Amino acid sequence: MDPNIIFIFILAIFVGIEVISKVPSMLHTPLMSGTNAIHGIILFGGILVLADAATLQEQALGFIAVVFGSANVFGGFMVTDRMLQMFKKAKK
Amino acid sequence: MSPTNAYIIIGISALFIIGIKLLASPKTARLGNLVAAGGMLVALLTLHKPTGDYVWSQNWSINYTLIAIGLVIGLIIGATGAYSVKMTSMPQMVALFNGVGGGAAALVASLEFTKPDRHITTFLAVSMLFATLIGSLSFSGSIIAFLKLEGKFEKPYTFPGQNIVNGLVLLVILGLCGWLAFHASAHHASTAFIVLFSLALCFGVAMVMPIGGADMPVVISLLNSFTGLAVAADGFAINNLAMVVAGTLVGSSGTLLTLLMCKAMNRPVSNVLFGAFGSSGGSGAAGAGDLAGKTVKPIQADEAALLLVYAQQVVIVPGYGMAVAQAQHQVQELSEELAERGVEVRFAIHPVAGRMPGHMNVLLAEANVPYDQLCEMEAINPTMDRVDVCLVIGANDVVNPAAREDKGSPIYGMPIIEADHAKSVIVMKRSMASGFAGIENHLFYKDNTRMLFGDAKASLNALVAQVKAS
């Protein structure tokens, strides 16, 4: 185990808390949706295991993981963008 | 890891952090989402195997064809879902996307764990087990949350001793995890692993079933941070730093977001998860007792229109009822007509209005209500005494003075929009049915309150016509 990875993990916890500590409640939903898209990075985990899959079972489960991850990442960013494009200022 | 890879990962992490930071302000939120998406694209294009090989330069095999097909299918599912969903149903969509993410995290960890002929250190085994457990729990929990928001078994499902049964299941799960962590390559490991996986799926269902539909936003936010943590654990397991960083960011910011949401409802998170809120009608009935003998005073659209037109200050309190009736465009039309007649119109948005915090802002933004007309509860309450007419459209619990006055009420202590302080109140409502919390609303029985019954959309159309005619 590489201690650096634990170090990075701990720092990331504090950064995550810090960046959203002053968010107005009107943005809670888009923020939840946006962070939801970011954990779609699991797609890469799916790609990596599927790339090295050796048996039919591994291929099948890896394939499902890629489909799930891909839906998470694309759907997540798109639905967030759709929400946010509606936030406009008053027409002057 | 080569230095180049390290720089790439620093870049990707920075894009995610800046993206989330920009998402936290209305002016830059859309850009923030694009920045985060850009980070994801860079990460995809520079994806390296744990061994250091560049993924996209390997010999093309059937596995790569499967990856390409899987990506496209996911893209189609995601895009269809994202662009076809009605804005009122958006929380469900987020729940689904979160669920599939959790499912993927569980599958990746399972595949790594069950790989034959490989010695796994205890640290890696724990990461994989954690990702499997949390990921599958998030998967099944999100699906139940989705179904609840769709209106299927919306009521909390409880039985006596439920928390004890759930606790026992959790103990079995943790026991299995503990054993597997040290016996990853034992003879019965894969059987135990399958049992663990199934139990975790069941636990996700059991955890969300007793929670009422009104609390689903909190649950989704919590499951969102769970999925983030599962992804981070997967990152440990397959030694992918970008996944560790992204997953941890989501896990910690999601946890804070969950706590902020609970704070907006003035309830501790434990109460949301184990309280089975809204399941008993007991205190609701008690509240109704005080109201015996009191009646509500109905009003017709023409009279309501007159009240509005001759007011100087109008505050509109939209609730989920408005969203269900798809009446946000009519609300916007009404506010424009009133503004043309010199009435100052503001919208008071309760932090938990709609089905998710901020959901109401999205719905009103969809109807072109400029976001600087939307006021947060803390800003509007001190000015409520000077408001001539407060128009409550399909909102209920968030304007219930019982939260302030009735210590026995389940919503006691929840911050509310003080609609009852306005000189007169018009409540638009379909019927006298109670809100999500299942309790009577004292506001409806106050002397300065008038009820405009009917479908919100139809009533608003009538109001707009009357305002135009006056």
Overview of this protein structure:
The complex is a heterodimer of chains A (92) and B (470). Helices cover 73% and strands 0% of the residues of chain A. Chain A has 92 residues and is mainly α. The longest helix of chain A has 29 residues, at 56-84. The termini of chain A are far apart. Chain B is an alpha/beta fold and 470 residues long. In chain B, strands 3-2-1-4-5-6 form a six-stranded parallel β-sheet. Chain B starts with a helix and ends with a helix.
Characteristic key phrases:
heterodimer, A: 92 residues, mainly alpha, 73% helix, B: 470 residues, alpha/beta, Rossmann fold, six-stranded parallel beta sheet, 6 strands, 58% helix, elongated
Please mark out the parts of chain B with pLDDT under 50 across 5 or more consecutive residues, or reply none.
277-289
User: What structural category characterises the helix and strand content of chain B?
Assistant: alpha/beta
Distance between the termini of chain B: 74 Å
As a percent range, the share of strand residues of chain A is under 5%
> How many DSSP-defined strands of chain B?
6
What's the structural domain tally of chain B?
Answer: 2
Mean pLDDT of chain A comes to 87
- Helix-strand topology string of chain B: HHHHHHHHHHHHEHHEHEHEHEEH
Structural domains of chain A: how many: 1
Largest interface: A-B, 78 and 116 residues
Cα-atom radius of gyration of chain A: 18 Å
State the helical fraction of chain B.
55-70%
Number of strand elements of chain A: 0
Please give the largest β-sheet of chain A: none
Ends apart, CA distance between termini of chain A: 58 Å
Percent in strands of chain B: 5-15%
**General form of chain A:** flat
Give me the oligomer status.
Answer: heterodimer
Nearest-angstrom radius of gyration of chain B? 26 Å
Give the helix tally of chain B: 18
